[in-house]
Amino acid sequence: MESANAAGTGIDAARTQKTTRPLTPERTTEIVIGALILTATTSYLVGSALIDSAVDQESLSNPNETQLVTGALLEFVNAAAVVGIGVLLFPILRRYREGMALGYAARRIIESALLLVSALFVLVLLPLNEAADAAQLQATGTLALEGYDVAFQLAEIALGAGSLLFMYILYAFRLVPRALSLLGVVGYVALFASGWLEIAGHSAALLYIPGGLFELIFPLWLIFRGFNAPAVTTRSADGT
Known about the structure:
By secondary structure, the chain is mainly alpha-helical. Helices cover 77% and strands 0% of the residues.
């Protein structure tokens, strides 16, 4: 009877070990990465909504300065979070494919730079309240909004292209469930395509859906479960 109880205890301990991990520095990093992804997504959604609601794109008259500044600041938060994600993921991903990890981090830095440019275009709208010439106001405002949109779409293209490298590592090494990796592949291919379509003048709002789902589920997975154990215990076969 005692041996049976001991065996049962051993099985329970093994199951617990598989489903829980101690709060090591690596586990803390995963939680921070998940939080940064949620921060980036939230700051973008709220910031872009504030910017859109602050500007009458037909006349560009009397933009709401408070909303514009708040929206631009949230875009800066988004850009900072994007860099943080790339920097924190790099030492984890390099254990599997260093070249791909470097390419992913570089593209996130490019994405962040483009997001900053996009936010700066928004701030160009602030002095327009004082413009006396209506034609000049309209021309400058239209150019600023076009710059804002194009810079943002280029940032999304960079995100889509770079994240396919990330998805390959997640899928090949089973760092998360493969179904989640495949959702990411679909989402980032769609995001890459939507950027080009938007720049060409076509609406592609539906293409944001799979990527949006991934960027909600994946960070929650990182926060509550983390990468599978090989992400912090092994290196790729080629030692990179």
